[in-house]
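Table S2 (continued). Query chain:
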Amino acid sequence: MQVRDTVRRLQISAFVTGVTLVAVPLGAQSGAKILTPPKPADTTRASVSRPPSASAPATSASGAARPTAVVPQSPVLDSIREVVFRNLLEKDRAGFATLASAFCLSLSTDDFKKANPAPDRVDPPEPMVRRLATPRAPARRASTCTFAPNAAAARPVPGRPLLYSVGAIDLSSPDRAEAAAGYNYDGYSAGGYTFTVDRSDSGWVVKQWRMEWTARTSTP
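Corresponding output:
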């Protein structure tokens, strides 16, 4: 009887000890902090576009972006422009007509009183260009011409496109006007004029003209 009691006490003691040994690690797990591994670095961060500063001009792949020129249009202004273009082409005011590879026409708002490295230009109306074109001076719109000023130091002077532009027009009276004009021989030479035109029974006619300036340049 005493032996049985001893065996039972030993079994109960072993059972309690086992429970204690198991309970300790469970308690340790429940009290431990669970750590998560850090996330990998984000290499696909989105770029944020900001509006350009008001003081910074917009740019493009070819340089500073420029607004399209706004050239006033009216039958009277166009008739004056056509007379000035005709005088430039027929009288060869620039002196390069025999060398020009193309005769390119444009409209501008410039007064051509002094050299402007990049005046705003737009094409004249196509019907005007067709009326001005002759076998001697096959005129066309400036946008159809290719300019390459001083592309190479050894490039010969002959064979460059000749650009004529009619600019600002001042209608001082119903029968008299002053029209600015300019030429550029593909970056080799450029100049500015002022034409005085009068209205006659047959239309506008050039009464006089003067050269404002002429110079070697590098921009058509």
